[in-house]
Specification:
Helix 1 runs parallel beside helix 4. Strands 1-2 form a two-stranded antiparallel ribbon. By secondary structure, the protein is mainly alpha-helical. It is built from 5 helices and 2 strands.
């Protein structure tokens, strides 16, 4: 996991809007995207599809980490959002609106 996070940080490295992800649990700053907080984005997606009955991801992740369990599904979703964000910032800035519309549509 730390190798993958290093790769993501290298992708974003010099971009002024990029916030590096910590290599230590609980992955501090992983949620920071140029379009907002990824936990909020994922929570809003859940709310839209589950009509108020949803899992508050940040609380759940922190509770599970405190229990010594890493939920790889949530970590992977957060890292995928972070990777997509930096790729749009670096490689496709003219298409950044597509990323924002896709993931920020619900906020």
């Amino acid at each position: 996991m730390s190798k993958y996070i290093k790769h993501i940080n290298n992708l974003g490295g010099e971009h002024p809007k990029y916030v590096k992800t910590s290599l230590e649990l609980p992955f501090k700053e992983m949620e920071n995207l140029s379009i907002g907080n990824s936990f909020n984005i994922l929570n809003e997606l859940q709310r839209d599809y589950h009509e108020g009955n949803y899992l508050h991801l940040e609380t759940y992740l922190k509770d599970r980490l405190n229990d010594g369990f890493v939920d790889h599904g949530i970590i992977s979703a957060l890292l995928l959002l972070k990777t997509s964000d930096i790729l749009y910032l670096r490689k496709w800035p003219h298409k950044k609106k597509i990323f924002e519309n896709t993931f920020h549509l619900w906020l």
